[in-house]
Write a structure and sequence with these properties.
Blueprint lengths: L6 H15 L4 E6 L2 H5 L2 H14 L6 E6 L11 E4 L3 E3 L7 H10 L9 E2 L6 E2 L6 H4 L17 H6 L4 H22 L11 H10 L6 E6 L8 H8 L1 H15 L3 E7 L3 H16 L15 E7 L8 H8 L23 E5 H13 L1 H5 L9 E8 L5 E6 L4 H8 L9 E6 L5 E3 L10 H6 L8 E6 L4 H15 L5 H18 L5 H17 L3 H5 L2 H9 L1 H10 L12 E4 L9 H5 L5 E2 L7 E2 L9 H5 L5 E4 L7
Parallel strand pairs: 1-2, 7-8, 7-10, 8-9, 11-15
Antiparallel strand pairs: 1-3, 3-4, 5-6, 11-12, 13-14, 13-15, 16-19, 17-18
Helix pairs in contact: 3-4, 7-8, 7-10, 7-13, 9-11, 10-13, 17-18, 17-21, 18-19, 21-22
The chain binds flavin mononucleotide and iron/sulfur cluster (2 copies).
The site of one iron/sulfur cluster (SF4) has 14 residues, from helix 24.
């Protein structure tokens, strides 16, 4: 690979690459993200290349294996450029039709178009799809647009120019000023102003400083950072180098969870290519600045995403947080000043330098600028990865981008902010999303997990689910989090089993507040949020569980009644034979009856009954 020695050489390379691409009349972008690969996009990619080769189209048609397009629900995705045709749910066997009909004859393959569920109409262009209309892809700008395994694709899209400008034009102070003016805040959850963090680290005197990229991404269901690293690793590498130059660090470390094999492979490849091209290493672009990056692997502990625990883990110590201050900016990795930023935060940096602080600051709300990437999951039609301007409402996300609630069910709540976030309701749907509004509503931005819940979800069980996660993931260093969360979990468990008392409700609130106030790190300080927010917004469900021993959504099995309907029971004895505790009595061809005192609500009888005679009653049957 050509080693670039100046910014001018980089720009010349970009122009040369653009010139080379002019020969191609069609570009087929095939999603090569983890989700689509699981649905055989690799074979699809291979088939397309083979058919193109067979037909002698290699000089005019190009297949680009890209990162995630975000619309994971409808993957594998193939996008054809320049006509912007967006094919969904493409199978390896569809490759021939795409090449022979669309590429050679100009007849688009309509059956692979997305069908809009609202209108039942076929949509061929992603820009006209509800899922994309309200999105603005800044951090995800290159995901789905370039080959993450080829540095030339990144360079062709202005890659590494921001680094060149920072080192050779702006200098450290002006760069920090640009980031401060842009209003960028950390996307890892805390929302700390990025420019200010860089400034603090830059001002600390030390013989060695470090730049750390936090790619731990421990929130259940979250895959924003994974998608960026799989789809656009160079933007993170470039941003880390920019940060290093600005704060005076020559070493960068990416802490990435070992369960992200594709992201790790692509990141390693990208680092090697950047070294070979002279964009990492010594005297980058003739600036005299040296910078290189190493990887460190996390073992999947949620707490290791907390920056002090992460640093300990990188040092080979137990992944436990320590009290702040000192902040990593002052004393971090190996006791040296360390700037820790999230993957998505870094992905925004090069484009801010290239397009300017004012451009970025013009997007979003007063105190939260730019966009945010969310992993949209749960009972929603369009599950996937989305990026929206700050200030977009939850209603727009759920109903326009997300396509509404699955199976026409009624919306109940949206859980934002990961395991320590909160559940928001109907009344919050028109709240513009930003750091402050979400916190004021009793939840938080977190790193970007969004789980939609419908009428079938029990909110007490939802709180219990998150507490279960927290109990598993607490590092155990401080008692409020270690013991307190366990007690919260046990109390919720009692309530869902119909054994809750009015005192339990009081205990949940008091203990939650104690845990929040006295825990050592962010994990414990936010862990009671699911309990407090569901108690605040769904108090009547807690009351029903405790006072009426009733779960309105039928999720809490202990509060249900299995009942045999007299008019449907034919006395076949199937239920009686399936019951593990002999709770069912009745002779052949006679009505069978369940003894509620013996029944353990296992559901085996309901499964076995071929006459649908066994029903579940939510109302507890009060004995006469
Ligand atoms: C329990 C816990 C888990 C965290 N997990 C992550 C994570 O997976 N990724 C991340 O970037 N930040 C995570 N954070 C936040 C980091 O401590 C830190 O604030 C962040 O990496 C700073 O980067 P930013 O300013 O770019 O957001 C976590 C915090 C806590 C308390
Ligand atoms: S709050 Fe929880 S995770 Fe944080 S230090 Fe204490 S025990 Fe560990
Ligand atoms: S739910 Fe299970 S325990 Fe209860 S009657 Fe049916 S089979 Fe027996």
């Amino acid at each position: 690979m050509t080693k670039l020695k100046s910014l001018a050489e980089l720009i010349k390379m970009k122009e040369m690459l653009l010139q080379q691409k002019k020969g191609y009349s069609k570009h087929l972008h095939v999603c090569g993200g983890t989700g689509c690969q699981a649905a055989h996009s690799k074979t699809l990619d291979m088939n397309l290349k083979e058919i193109i080769d067979d037909k002698g189209l290699n000089n005019s048609v190009r297949v680009v294996t890209t990162g995630c397009f975000g619309f994971c629900e409808k993957g594998p995705i193939v996008k054809v450029l320049p006509d912007n045709t967006f094919y969904t749910e493409v199978k390896p066997a569809d490759a021939r039709e795409i090449i022979e009909d669309h590429i050679l004859k100009g007849n688009k393959v309509e059956r692979l178009f997305y069908t809009d569920p609202a209108t039942n109409e076929k949509v061929s262009n992603s820009e006209e799809m509800g899922f994309y209309k309200k999105q603005l892809r800044i951090a995800l700008r290159n995901c789905g647009a370039i080959n993450p395994e080829d540095i030339h694709d990144y360079i062709e899209n202005d890659g590494y120019q921001a680094l060149g400008k920072v080192m050779l034009v702006y200098g450290a102070v002006e760069t920090i000023d640009i980031i401060k003016k842009s209003g960028l805040r950390g996307r890892g959850g805390g929302g700390f102003p990025t420019g200010l963090k860089w400034e603090i680290t830059s001002k600390v005197e030390a013989d060695q400083k470090y730049v750390v990229c936090n790619a731990d991404e421990g929130d259940p269901g979250a895959f924003m950072d994974r998608a960026i690293l799989e789809g656009d690793p160079h933007s993170v590498i470039e941003a880390m180098a920019i940060c290093g130059y600005t704060i005076g660090a020559t070493k960068g470390l990416v802490y990435i969870r070992a369960e992200y094999p594709l992201a790790i492979t692509r990141l390693k490849k990208a680092i090697n290519q950047a070294r070979e091209t002279g964009l990492l290493g010594t005297d980058i672009m003739g600036s005299g600045f040296d910078f290189d990056i190493e990887l460190r692997f996390g073992a999947g502990a949620f707490v290791c995403g907390e920056e002090t625990a992460l640093i300990h883990s990188m040092e080979g110590l137990r992944g436990e947080p320590t009290f702040k201050p000192p902040f990593p900016s002052v004393s971090g990795y190996l006791g040296k000043p360390t700037n820790v930023n999230n993957v998505e935060t870094f992905a925004n940096i090069p484009v801010i330098i290239n397009k300017g602080a004012d451009w970025f600051a013009s997007i979003g709300t007063e105190k939260s600028k730019g966009t945010k990437v969310f992993a949209l999951a749960g009972k929603i039609n369009n599950v996937g990865l989305i990026e929206v301007p700050m200030g977009t409402t939850l209603r727009e996300i759920i109903y326009e981008i997300g396509g509404g609630i699955k199976d026409g069910k009624k919306f109940k709540a949206i859980q934002t902010g990961g395991p320590s976030g909160g559940c928001l309701t109907e009344k919050h749907l028109d709240t513009p999303i930003d750091y402050d509004n979400l916190t004021a509503a009793g939840s938080m931005m977190g790193s970007g997990g969004m789980i939609v819940l419908d009428e079938d979800d029990c909110m007490v069980s939802v709180a219990k689910f998150y507490l279960d996660f927290i109990v598993e993931e607490s590092c155990g260093k401080c008692a409020p989090c270690r013991v307190g969360n366990k007690r919260l979990y046990e109390t919720l468990e009692r309530i869902t089993q119909g054994k809750g008392t009015p005192e339990d409700l009081e205990r949940l609130k008091n203990l939650s507040n104690v845990i929040k106030e006295t825990s050592l790190c962010g994990l414990g300080q936010t862990s009671p949020n699911p309990v407090l927010s569901t108690m605040e917004n769904f108090w009547d469900e807690y009351v029903e569980h405790v006072y009426e021993k009733k779960c309105r959504s039928g999720q809490c099995k202990a509060l249900l009644n299995y009942h045999i309907e007299e008019e449907l029971c034919v006395g076949c004895t199937a239920c009686k034979r399936s019951c593990p505790v002999n709770a069912i009595t009745g002779d052949k061809k006679q009505l069978h009856v369940i003894n509620q005192d013996i029944c353990i609500k296992c559901g085996a009888c309901e499964e076995k009954c071929a006459f649908d005679a066994i029903t579940i009653r939510i109302e507890k049957k009060i004995p006469a």
